[in-house]
Design brief:
Chain lengths: 134, 134
DNA sequence: CTGCCACTTCAAGTTCGCTTGAGGTCAAGC
DNA sequence: GCTTGACCTCAAGCGAACTTGAAGTGGCAG
């Protein structure tokens, strides 16, 4: 059960075969060979696809993801770049936290207009501030 | 200085006029009138645009953002939906945290192959787990 | 040996979120 | 009154990330 063909990968990961073909085409995943015409993938493809899905959720483009996790699924970027990426993600986490707090607040706050609520106004101020100052 | 025309809004927010016209077209922002042909916006547009930018960073589509912050910039969704959205965002924050830790780890870990590093393998397991179990 | 059917390729189409370009308008300054 | 310049409209184009469809192929079960 070492080598999976495209249908099995699709079934196990939920990623459609058409998408897998596309990823193969752009070099985001690599098929280890063919059985007839049928693409075959190594077992590492499975976790590579979860990393890809993670990266997508984080808002990275497939190109950026390909750059982060090279063909082998092994990261090959300079440390500096990796830390920079991590910092970007930290900023994004902060943004999401503000948005989440805003939604939760709005769901619960009884004020007639949220603009009148000091808590909402505070969140708004944070939301408007540039990332560098957060 | 109550009412701004499109150029001023663009300048203050960094959102290009073409995008503002597009947002107007799809009803994501509303112009309060025209001076000649020129669109004019109320001052609330400014903070609405930062909410929009926040929502975009969070990976929501413009339609979803429009649904969250109705035309008036006032949220008009049932509390339940808002909390559901907030929970979604929480999951996303967790995903991002895993990804960030993964990047930082990879930047610093001296192991020859990350697959051999127990810490990396642990992060990988978390990454592969469905959101519900995290 | 013959089907079957899951795959293949390749081109074209789709959605999203805009941008670009051509040609037009209008308020304001000279 | 004329020019200027910032806006306008409308249609087309664009890149990302796929999907869809038509026509073909090849391993394997019977």
């Amino acid at each position: 059960m070492e080598i999976l063909d495209i249908g099995e990968v699709a079934e196990r990961t939920g990623v459609p075969a058409s998408a897998l073909r596309y990823y193969d085409e752009i070099g985001l995943v690599t098929s280890v060979g063919r059985r007839g015409l049928r693409r075959q993938f190594g077992p590492e493809t499975i976790w590579q696809l979860s990393l890809i899905s993670l990266g997508k959720k984080a808002g990275f483009s497939l190109k950026e993801i390909a750059a982060m996790f090279g063909k082998a699924g092994v990261v090959e970027l300079p440390r500096q770049t990796l830390h920079a990426r991590a910092d970007e993600i930290d900023n994004q986490i902060r943004d999401l936290t503000v948005l989440r707090d805003m939604l939760r607040h709005v769901a619960d706050c009884p004020a007639p207009s949220h603009l009148e609520c000091p808590r909402f106004r505070k969140l708004l101020r944070v939301a408007s501030r540039p990332a560098s100052r957060r």
